[in-house]
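Here's what a typical entry looks like (DOD-type homing endonuclease domain-containing protein):
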Amino acid sequence: MPRRSSPLILAFVIVALLFLFPLHCLARHFVLVLEKDDLKDNPSPENSDDQFSGDESAGDSIEWDEFGDSDSKSEEELDPGSWRPILESSDSFARNFTPESDDGLYFSGLGKLINGVSKGEVELVEEAAKEFVVASNGGHAHAQSVLGFLYGLGIGVKRSDSKAFLYHSFASAGENMQSKMALAYTYFRQELFENAVELYAELAETAVASFLISRDSPIVEPVRINDGSEENKEALRKSRGEEDDDFQIMEYQALKGNAAAMYKLGLFYYFGLRGVRRDHAKALSWFLKAVEKGEPNSMELLGEIYTRGAGVPRNYTKALEWLTLASKQKHFSAYNGIGYLYVKGHGVEKKNFTKAREYFERAAKNDEPSGHYNLGVLYLKGIGVKKDVRVASRHFLTAANFGQPKAFYQLAKMFQKGIGFKKDLALAATLYKIVAERGPWGSLSRWALEAYLKGEIGKALLLYLRMAELGYEVAQSNAAWILDKYGERSLCIGESGFCTAAERHQRAHSLWWHASEQGNEHAALLIGDAYYYGRGTERDFERAAEAYTHAHSQSNAQAMFNLGYMYEHGQGLPLDLHLAKRYYDQALENDPAAKLPVTLALMSIWIRKNHAGSFMVEIIDSLPEMYPKFGAWIETNIMDEGNATIITLFICLLTVLYLRERQRRQAVVPPPPADNIAG
């Protein structure tokens, strides 16, 4: 009998696995929702804060530098100690410095560190650490920052959280912005919000100063290289820049005179989208060609380019001409640009706050977030209007929920100082963090992604680990995924040589945990799996349940299913069949694709309720002990990772066989008496 049913069981398992519902790992879009309790009672605009004065000079503050200044600082000036020179120029850059100098040692060490992890040469990493120590002893803040990074993870040195914190503190005092980010994130996780706000406010201000465009796209698009437990091939394909087939087709169409393709190419070069390097000269060229072909969308961006002086000398007269033409074509963000010119008095006869407000209102009425933001600044500072903190708050909230980063910055200041809202340092820190992560130090993700696409996994891992330390959730999940997916091939460097399996698992575990704290539901699920199966940590059902509960709070159907299973079997949670059924039902409600595993799980509960103490229940309860060996086979031959669903499938397979046998027996009915037949 068992031999006869084995093919059936195997076939059923394979079919069931094909229908297992997918995991979703994208963090949710940030939406700010406030209640009446968050607002101050009858806030007095006059007493809100002395820094928000109503004179005209307020219009010259940093918030109005929508298009940047001609003397805007470079990335190296805004982010001292940036890794960019080495990443762009490799060892050649370091040769420009005296080898014995602290700067020479720093850049030499940085080059060796990156080359060492790229090529898997542990000796280079150890040499780099020694050079950082020498430079650090001389008070070199940037070398201290890298040492903080190395000690925090145990890369080429013995791991030490206390030394990591100490080196980052020294580096932060020396104005290393990446160490400020690392410290701010440390304070943020520890809920020391007063300390976190102080650092994040400074970082956010630097980030705002680095914004180069009115719509403030990120320096680099954050690309998640994994989709659940699989590589995100589509996102990676779209990040190959000029090497992407779609880009080359678009370029071919543009060269053939397609105006829409010209405009799209201009966008790619102007904003630096999909892995394309920013090139304002190329952007200007394609926008001008598109306009010549009658393409209207380029007009607004030409107005912005001439306002900013991006790739051309600033020319406010031309900027106003292009923006006016764009506004006539119903490009409503152009109204925002014209309003800006009136606020600054550029390209027009003189400053005119009334006209500026009118243009901002036109933009806002057409859901242009920057229009809402600028109106918020007008009302907050009383520029051309009566000062009104409530109206300003409403506009900032609208702009923030459209994703306008400067609106986050203004709201953070208001919550920090208690202007218009009740003072809330936790929320202020969260909002400042969003803005700070748009700073120039975020460009590391570009180099990390490029390295990954080139197959330089060790280099990609190092750069994602650095960004993970700074608090970037996408980098945390990318680094963890590389460690899990590539294993030894990740060229993970540990305290002594390559990472041991334990070091690699523990590092991935820590990264997934950090990512889960920041809303990555897939990360929370993997943490639960790690505790449930004892991967990289001791097996702990209670902590697994905590992690699954966290993922459940983010509406993760797989986590709901796993919680149901744990309630059904009393693992880390009280045995409760009613709660088990509730969680199974919730899993199905949140993801219809879960119908098959949920149906099988409910059959298992039915057996427990109706045949308690039976031989079948004993078999069901013994399956977890039988699972490890068979689970290893499943992982090797069918799946990339196991989960509680597999156990339930086997439980329910036996249930199906049991019910079929029972139905067969009941179907055997004794023949009726002979006389009835005759009758």
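The first helix runs from residue 2 to 18.

More examples are in the samples folder.
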